[in-house]
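Figure 2 data, in text form.
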Amino acid sequence: MSPDKWEDIKDMAKKNFEVLEMGKSENGDVITEDLIFNGPLGKVKLQYVSKPLVLSKKVTYSKRMGDTAKVDYVTSDTEKTNTLFAYKWDTASDTWIEINAATFNQ
């Protein structure tokens, strides 16, 4: 998803629904934006995650007993991957349940 499309979705949610919470957090190169609002499904959370594109990964093994493998990721300095996740609040379990987009095609 492009950053422009995310801005359009945020504007549409602000215009059509009661926004309960908005936030942005950064953890290193990973930027996460959250938007929580009351929608037709109830309480809904949209999470937009932007992180560097992984170009390759290198796994280093050790044959010593009890030692673990090490994974090194090579990421792009210029390219980013942008992902949108949608969650619905489940009042019975007091947790967010991910909304699977494949269920909408049925």
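Caption note: Residues 3-52+79-99 form one domain.
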